[in-house]
Design goal:
It is built from 2 helices and 35 strands. It is mostly beta strands. The chain is globular.
């Protein structure tokens, strides 16, 4: 009787090939994974569970950087107590092939394996950086770095007389051999000092000279998530770097804190010449190129730009209603969220949410348009957008329906970590605004939504995890959660294009079917802004698992360029 099964699978860029094994009948399975020669394999193990194996000899899952199970080519192996239920793991090969083997004791028939793999571009690592501040990470971080690589970076401060301060936020690499006095497998080297194990909080920060060399090496064996470093330039002589404001009493503060009439410097030096300062990432840029340091100046009813551009595009974010199941949510009043759209596909009905941002454009999540084996979601032809809808099947002459002419998915969208999860949809014909259909305001890059801000997420998604979709539009009140808190809860998977909101005690959240819909927060004058797009989360409304949204301010320029 045949005891083993082999599969040969190939993925082209943009394709996701799925590996699923439920209640296996054989004792050994292997998958030979191949991608085009200019790509590498990214394997994402989503689910792996069953009885905890007692012996690694009879029960294990292994990944190899080769098409044969050579022990000196093993990238990682799951076996033994405690290793059988990994959180989502993303492995990267060093070339265009990978082998996955699953060996199990046939007495255990309840094992489950769910994974997928894709072709991703082969990247060159290393480089030369001259910058006031920035970050550096191992290739493909937070996916596992590939085996058999060497990277070298040089970081320099932009001006002589400045030094560099480095903080190692994450270091997870293969540790040295037992008994070895030095890092002999994988290592991170900073200014000649090698690291190959987790560091205590006290040892993560160090100061260096004007220039620092960083090298990273991985051997042919086991890999991990790698490293993530923050760096910044500073001077002991001039304690403020050029992106900070130098108060008259030699204290520093960020420029975006100035011009608030709060006299933080204590002697008015930060409030002098406040109409315009040099542009910083926190400044609002007027059409004439000048920058304001007043926080959130757009559409606040006051003309702050000399050309009035901060008050120009303000016919948005208001609902027109006259009278005064998202998980844990409640039915929304008809017309309360007039920018909410339902994206539907033929007999499949409602699939994702979207937001109206102009009479011709909708904004949604990129992951709504990933093709499956049976459905080509990336093709505009099958989609219809319904606006002014309250109940999912309650279509009337007040509901606007438009075909979709074009779908623009962000070119940097990375489905394995849901980064840049944003898509723009151009409608075949413009939509006419009414009491039930209105655009939501797009927040400019400089707009800040403070942690703790109360916002609303809306949609027709599942009213609880793995449940049916809601019939009536649901709304749920959520709070914006601190980025670093959320990053800890999600093991550093939160990028600067993501925003977290919810309730850390659980009970309130977006869920399946809400994807692509709005996270709406108010600004001055009760005007609503699109702070986020429903993207992902672990389960729905679980404790310490808030919803993760695409951060619209981080992608404002891209939206603007593509919808002009």
């Amino acid at each position: 009787m045949l005891k083993s099964v082999s599969f040969d699978l190939y993925a082209k860029p943009g394709n996701n090939r799925t590996l699923t094994l439920m209640n296996p009948k054989k004792s050994f399975y292997q998958w030979r994974l191949r991608v085009p020669s200019n790509c590498v394999v990214r394997l994402v193990v989503i689910d792996l569970h069953g009885a905890t194996p007692e012996s690694c000899a009879s029960h294990h899952l292994s990944a190899y950087d080769f098409l044969l199970p050579l022990q000196n080519k093993i990238i990682t192996r799951w076996c033994g107590p405690g290793a059988w239920t990994p959180s989502v793991v993303r492995l990267t090969s060093s070339s265009n092939v990978m082998l996955l083997t699953f060996s199990l004791d046939q007495r255990e028939g309840s094992s489950i394996l769910k994974a997928h793999f894709q072709a991703i571009p082969k990247i060159m690592c290393g480089g030369h950086h001259i910058s006031w501040n920035g970050t550096l990470s191992s290739p493909y971080y937070p996916s596992y770095y590939p085996p058999n690589i060497d990277c070298s970076w040089i970081i320099k401060a932009p001006l002589p007389g400045y030094k560099l301060s480095l903080k190692i936020l994450v270091i997870q690499i293969q540790e040295k051999s037992p008994g070895s006095s030095k890092c002999d497998k994988d290592w991170l080297e900073i200014d000649g000092v090698r690291y190959c194990k987790a560091l205590s909080e006290n040892n993560r920060n160090r100061e260096y000279g004007y220039s620092v060399a960083i090298n990273f090496h991985s051997d042919e064996l086991v890999t991990h998530r790698g490293f993530y470093i923050e760096y910044k330039a500073f001077s002991h002589r001039d304690r403020c770097n050029p992106e900070q404001l130098n108060c008259g009493d030699r204290k520093c503060k960020h420029q975006y804190r100035s011009c608030k009439d709060d006299d933080s410097c204590g002697e008015d030096s930060d409030e002098n010449n406040c109409s315009y300062k040099s542009c910083s990432p926190y400044a609002y840029k007027c059409l004439n190129g000048k920058c304001l340091l007043k926080p959130n100046p757009e559409c606040d009813g006051k003309r702050d730009c000399a050309d009035g551009s901060d008050e120009m595009n303000c016919a948005c974010g208001r609902h027109q209603i006259k009278k005064n199941r998202i998980v844990g949510g409640e039915d929304a009043r008809s017309g309360k969220w007039p920018w909410q759209a339902s994206l539907q596909m033929g007999a499949r009905g409602h699939i994702c949410g979207a937001s109206v941002i102009s009479n011709r454009w909708l904004i949604s999540a990129a992951h709504c348009f990933l093709d499956s084996d049976s459905v080509r979601y990336s093709v505009p032809l099958g989609w219809r957008a319904y606006m002014g809808l309250h109940t999912i099947n309650g279509k009337s002459n007040r509901v606007a329906m438009r075909s979709i002419k074009r779908i623009i998915v962000h070119p940097q969208y990375d489905q394995s970590i849901s980064d840049y999860d944003i898509a723009l949809l151009e409608m075949e014909m413009p939509v006419f605004f009414s009491e039930l259909v209105q655009p939501i305001c797009l927040p400019s890059t400089s707009r800040v939504f403070l942690y703790g801000t109360v916002c609303y997420v809306t949609g027709w998604g599942a009213v609880k995890e793995n449940s049916h979709f809601a019939n009536t539009l649901q709304e749920a009140r959520v709070r914006i959660i601190n980025q670093s808190v959320c990053n800890k809860l999600y093991d550093d998977l939160i990028t600067s294009r993501m925003l977290c909101a919810g309730n850390l005690n659980g009970g309130v959240d977006a869920c399946q079917g809400d994807s692509g819909g709005p996270l709406a927060c108010t600004g001055k004058g009760n005007r609503w802004y699109l702070a986020g797009i429903v993207s992902w989360g672990e389960g729905c409304a679980r404790r310490n698992r808030p919803g993760v949204y695409t951060k619209v301010t981080a992608l404002y320029d891209w939206i603007h360029q593509n919808t002009n």
